[in-house]
Amino acid sequence: MGEFLLLMVSAILVNNILLLRFLGNCPFLGVSRKMDTATGMGLAVIFVMTLAGMITWLVYRYLLVPLSLEYLRTIAFILVIATLVQFVEMVIQKAAPPLYEALGIYLPLITTNCAVLGVAIINVDERYDLITAIFFSFASACGFALALVLMAGLRERFALVAIPKAFEGTAIGLVTAGLIALAFSGFAGLV
Amino acid sequence: MAATLREEFTKGFWRTIPPFRLVLGLCPTLAVTTSGINGLGMGLATTFVLVFSNLFVSLLRRFIPTQVRIASFIVIIASFVVIVELVMQAYFYPLFKILGIFIPLIVVNCIILGRAEAFASKNGPVLSLADGLGIGLGFTLSLFVLGLIRELLGAGTLLEIPVMWASFAPFAFMLKPPGAFVALGILLAFMNLISQIQARKG
Amino acid sequence: MRDIIRMIVVLTLIGAASGLTLSVIHRVTAGPIEYQTIKFVKEPAVKKVLSGYDNDPILDREKITVGTDPRGNPIELTVFPAKKGGQTFAVAVEGTGKGFHGAIGVMVGISKEGVILDIGITSHSETPGIGSRVTGVEYTDRYKGLPAKKGVTVDAISGATYSSKGVVAAVNEAVSTVATFREEIF
Fold first, then answer.
1. Number of domains observed in the structure of chain B
2. C-alpha distance from residue A69 to each of A64, B21, C46 (Å)
3. Dihedral pair phi/psi, residue C154, rounded to 5°
4. Is residue B48 part of a domain?
5. Which of A23, A46, A66, B139 is 20 to 30 A away from residue B131, measured at CA?
6. Cα–Cα dist B55/B49, whole Å
7. Interatomic CA distance for residues C108 and A82, integer angstroms
8. Helix or strand holding residue A146 (H, E)
9. What does the pLDDT read at residue A141?
10. Which of A26, A122, A171 sits opposite B26 (nearest CB)?
């Protein structure tokens, strides 16, 4: 259990997937303007990334490795993720309409979220076992959601301050992300 | 024809230069630009994939039914990414190790899927080639410049040659992840400033 | 209906063309990739654990079959021989052991007389600053001069017990391979 706790702290704080590993930055800057969109996106990512981490691990271990097709993992993983996202969208739409209302519009965006593919690749690169892989995917996604929500909280306040014209929009978003990342690097000694 | 061709090629260098004007493809931009060479390598790998995916998407645009176009584009893009992965591993191993996970991640670089969907699926192969090459080289240029700036401030070197004065103390901050965000943000603000001044003059 | 057939046909064709191209490129690049991996990953470790040779251990590498996997394919192991005047006097062989986070690869130099010359870590994903201390010379030097017999033991680094155990397991794997295939190697 201690090992999993360490992995959790490491994935959420010390090696935060967004701020320190630079995966998933496009949605990070795109949907962090408002708190509710940020929470929606965060939850959708936690859901899809955990599932995708598990399925891509199984595909790699039981399909690609036995056939010695490891070199096709990029193409296989992206197809698995794209299909999974479509499937999840359909299932949620049928089974839980309120959830679909809340998360629906974020799901298509997740296909091209490089954090999902990135975590799938890290899982097999680091040769995690299935349980660790699922756990790592979940923890990374929580780290993603945490950073996204923190960022949205800050960006909502930008409306109240005077920002130099050249810095408006993405530029100030990037500088803010840098400051949050700096705060997160303070956790470096934890693990 | 020649005029539009030049237009499609050159727009990638300033008017729609990624990742500044097209805010797409930020992950590799932030992650691998710790030196000029790394930025250049990443940019060229992306350009290769972009040019060939644009070409093939454009050639096949009449055969691909609209319902499955995104899936087809992803297969085409992913194939070229795997080619880049294999070739770099075989002939540029040290760079392959440095760029690491960001090479397979070219497949989810929104610039490439974005160009396939917005341009190559609607235009002929020649224009699509020009568009891919222009946007790709613009992206390469951005990464190279950002890499040079971070390398200069963070290590005091340009392309691994020391150029700063002897007592220069490098800001290691620039090579760390937070430095990447701040450097890109300031560079973007600087470009906005130039555009604003241009707009005022015009 | 015609639309669906067309969709399936187009997707299949694209997939097939892509698969074909990739398998050709994979064949072509397989050789260079193997060479590059050996050159950049194994060569530093081989150079560390062997000394006093006048050949190129990377170029002279030999593959020996050490068993078969469940599907009946041979499992091959690469041996890097150190030669002087054409005589192999030591070899470098890689073994793997399970560390705290996944496998640890260790290159072990073993002399013909059955003594461990030195070890070098080729791959690991241990925690930086804790488990990764096994890669330091203070630790790897503890193996120098031990007899290359089954059951090699070395004191673990305090705080990095799992990583140390992984290295010991890897060294033992390499040592027992060399003992088993002694005839073929020397």
1. 1
2. 5, 39, 29
3. -145, 145
4. yes
5. A23
6. 10
7. 44
8. helix A130-157
9. 92
10. A26
